[in-house]
Amino acid sequence: PAKAGMKDFLHISDFDKATIMKILDRAAEVKAVIKSGDRAFLPFKGKTMAMIFAKPSMRTRVSFETGFFLLGGHAIYLGPDDIQMGKREETRDVARVLSSYNDIIMARVFAHQNLVKDILDLAKHATVPVINGLTDYNHPCQIIADALTMIEHVGRLEGTKVVYVGDGNNIVHSWLLLAAVIPFHFVCACPKGFEPDAKTVQKAQQAGISKIEITNDPQEAVRGADVVYSDVWASMGQKEEAAHRRQVFQGFQVDENLMKLAGPKAYFMHCLPAERGVEVTDGVIEAPNSIVFPQAENRMHAQNAIMLHALGL
Ligand code: CP
Ligand code: NVA
């Protein structure tokens, strides 16, 4: 096999519970090393990573590049104008050329399936591991960072209640795919017509381990939540729909009243970037129970563990 001992990281549900828990434990362990100031752990020494970005990014770009460097490697940033995967050159050619220079590839792209600019195509033709840094369909690295943050703040992930309020987007799909692997209660409260992909909901339900609810009533949904989670109403690639979505999503803003309904134990999470005053109020982001910044920090630690796993280290 082309990738003997190495693994792509494309969807959470490609892994079993033991592997996800192992990645989370490793993330905590390597985080402690990095936070202690110890710079002697260099598993990526002599290794290089190509990072393909077809979309903008702050967290993903900086956390991958910094994390790979801190563990001894060198990462190369390729922005939207550089490779133009599927446009300047076919994805299968990009995959093979980058594999000949680099030990690992990270990609943030638009399409996920059935299109030329396709992360699945990239992974298929690459001979090194491919890590999904967000597609229109999902964002698995984000959800591993979120799980790590919940373990640190809530104390656990298993058995918790996570209530996502907003658009049934790529973040929701990754939560659903996590719920197919680890048991917890996941609720997505979204306006009618903005539900997550039905097949992905079905996959999470059919796994039969988590309670999955899709609802149009955020007030009812948030009661007893351990985490209330929000994301932008218009994702990258949908920005021209932003004005229309602001109308449709009235009532889905996470504000102080909604957090009060959630109850005293509820933390607020958001993958960021946030549009303050749109999907979430400034007050909710700045409140003591908001853990959005520890959550953002954990992107780096989660991804370090994902890359160690992908490279079989
Ligand atoms: N959360 C996240 O992926 O942020 P960026 O778009 O800044 O990478
Ligand atoms: N749903 C958002 C997440 C950004 C990290 C987007 O795709 O733009």
From TrEMBL:
Of the GO CC terms on this record, one is:
chloroplast
Full-sequence portion shown in this chain: 70 to 382 of 382
GO annotation terms (biological process): citrulline biosynthetic process; L-arginine biosynthetic process via ornithine
* Native source species: Populus tomentosa (Chinese white poplar)
Could you tell me which residue ranges the Aspartate/ornithine carbamoyltransferase Asp/Orn-binding domain spans? 158-309
Q: Which stretches make up the Aspartate/ornithine carbamoyltransferase carbamoyl-P binding domain?
A: 7-152
Molecular function (GO) terms for this protein are: amino acid binding; ornithine carbamoyltransferase activity
In which broad location class does this protein mainly occur, judging by the first location in its UniProt entry? plastid
Q: Which domain of life is it from?
A: Eukaryota
Q: What keywords does the record list, in alphabetical order?
A: Amino-acid biosynthesis, Arginine biosynthesis, Chloroplast, Plastid, Transferase, Transit peptide
Query: Which major enzyme category is it?
Result: transferase
Protein name, per record:
ornithine carbamoyltransferase
Q: Which reaction does it catalyse?
A: carbamoyl phosphate + L-ornithine = L-citrulline + phosphate + H(+)
Family indicated by similarity: Belongs to the aspartate/ornithine carbamoyltransferase superfamily. OTCase family.
> What residue range is the signal peptide?
none
Annotated compartments: Plastid, Chloroplast
What's the EC number here? 2.1.3.3
